[in-house]
Amino acid sequence: MHERESKPPTETPEWHVRTLGPRTFRSPLGLSTVLGDGVPDYVDDRTRILFDVELLAGIAFDPTRAFEKAGPRESLFFDPTSVRAAIVTSGGLCPGINDVIRSIVLHLHHKYGVKDVLGIRYGFEGLDPACGHEPMILDPEAVRHIHTRGGTVIGTSRGRREPAVMMDTLERLGVDILFAIGGDGTMRAAHVIAEEALRRGRKLAVVGVPKTIDNDVAYVDKTFGFETAVSMAKVAIDAAHTEALSARNGVGLVKLMGREAGFIAAHATLASHDVNVCLVPEVRYELDGEHGLLAWLERRLAARGHAVIVAAEGCGKFLVPTETLAAPRDPSGNLRFAARELDIGAHLRGRIEQHFRDRHLPLTLKYIDPSYMIRGVPANAMDAVFCDQLARNAAHAAMAGKTDVLVGRWHRGFTHVPLALALSAVKRIDPDRELWLAVTETTGQPRFVSAVESRPDGP
Questions:
Q1: Pick from 45, 53, 239, 441: CA 20 to 30 A from residue 369's CA?
Q2: CA distance 321 to 301
Q3: Is residue 44 annotated as a catalytic residue, yes or no?
Q4: Which residue segments constitute the domains of the chain, with CATH numbers given?
Q5: How many angstroms separate the Cα of 142 from the Cα of each of 100, 117, 153, 156, 287?
Q6: Number of Cα atoms under 13 Å in the Cβ half of residue 151
Q7: Counting beta carbons within 10 angstroms of the beta carbon of residue 20, is it exposed (0 to 12), middle (13 to 18) or buried (19 or more)?
């Protein structure tokens, strides 16, 4: 389900993918240029994947709103025998990072003949000489088993670095291709590096692979690690449901990841079928009052004797006016929702327990926060396949000289998304579309705002 892409109305998206120049080297992949001959084909640069596929009959659509299709090109910009590539991972952990690293290295090595790949240590810190991190050599032996464990073998970090300093390091290292694996902050850094390379006249291909466990990168229908995260979240919800059923007036409360977007909470709720309330950052709710969550929960327990509540961490923004609060932030500038002021899990637990104490009503509440268990596990089977697909398409894009671009997926097709376009919007759950409708129909939850009738039903 594609949720809304929020973009300032004055901006005009740029769909054109920048390339470094003419492609003069023949691809060693040995694919076909003839359709229907039974051999996999090279992709023509003119092939497009439409952004809009849902149309009103009789209403014209704009065919220029389309992504360049990803895939192998017949000719290359770089000579595989002399090119040097580098990989950087930045931001929080996510299942599948090592899978992407491994597949990029193996595909470059075995299919293109690229022998020189570096791993930039500890995120963009590794491009700042002041941090003292030397790059790691990535060859088939170095990445042989890394897909069997979570995390990132080359390390990660948060925080901004000066574009000129990072570009100086890349030039000193002789890097021709930079693969950036990360979320919106990482893609923003990759974009400024690509712009700095352009300013200097440096032929550097910068290709992003979107990594965010929250699945909130715009113009991309799914990011790797998301399916694994939802599966792990469901395990936590199942445990909370068991605890709730096993006690008188039992409540299972689960806090899941999701700073600004509640996709994990929403999809895990749908996967579980045992959640009674799902709270996400995109939908306002109230705790107090006749129509608030606390009064509803009291009625629910009186009627059914148990309840399961799932809350995305970003719901903590409703607790305090964050625009005026000197709230704690991480080195990348993101609000730290695990901090005391913004921790929705601890806040909900305290408010629910206090509500029932004040009314002298029995309550057994079990609180589960599986956040770091979700982030640090290896990718599951479907995510492992997806990681490999993204990595191979990233390698194809880079060797063809595509730059300032990320490899995404849209309508099941792999795409080249200009970084400027991806960064011009945010992806959020749209309360008026199918995903949130499915959640509310599955849970049976009301809106938890004034003047809306609430009911204590649901599974």
A1: 441
A2: 31
A3: no
A4: 4-222+379-428 (3.40.50.450), 226-376+432-443 (3.40.50.460)
A5: 14, 11, 9, 18, 52
A6: 9
A7: buried
Q: Please give the Cα distance from 75 to 80 (Å, whole number).
A: 11
Structure tokens at 315: 């719901």
**Distance (Å, rounded) from C-alpha 11 to C-alpha 6?**
11
| pLDDT of the chain, 459 residues: tens digit per residue | 456 554 433 334 589 999 999 999 999 999 987 777 777 889 999 999 999 888 888 888 788 889 999 999 999 999 999 999 999 999 989 999 999 999 999 999 999 999 999 999 999 999 999 999 999 999 999 999 999 999 999 999 988 899 999 999 999 999 999 999 999 999 999 999 999 999 999 999 999 999 988 899 999 999 999 999 999 999 999 999 999 999 999 999 999 999 889 999 999 999 999 999 999 999 999 999 999 999 999 999 999 999 999 999 988 877 665 554 566 666 656 666 666 667 899 999 999 999 999 999 999 999 999 988 898 999 999 999 999 999 999 999 999 999 999 999 999 999 999 999 999 998 999 999 999 999 999 999 999 987 644 444 555
**Cα distance between residue 207 and residue 224, in whole Å:** 16
CB 203 within 8 A of CB 21: yes
CA distance 377 to 96: 8
Would you put residue 439 in left (φ > 0), alpha (ψ -120 to 50) or beta? alpha
Contact (Cβ atoms closer than 8 angstroms) between residue 175 and residue 118: yes
What are the structure tokens assigned to 299, written together?
């009625």
Give the DSSP letter of residue 329.
B
* Structure-block tokens of residue 414: 């792999």
Residue with tokens 């290295």: 105
pTM: 0.90
Catalytic residue among 176, 184, 214, 274: 214
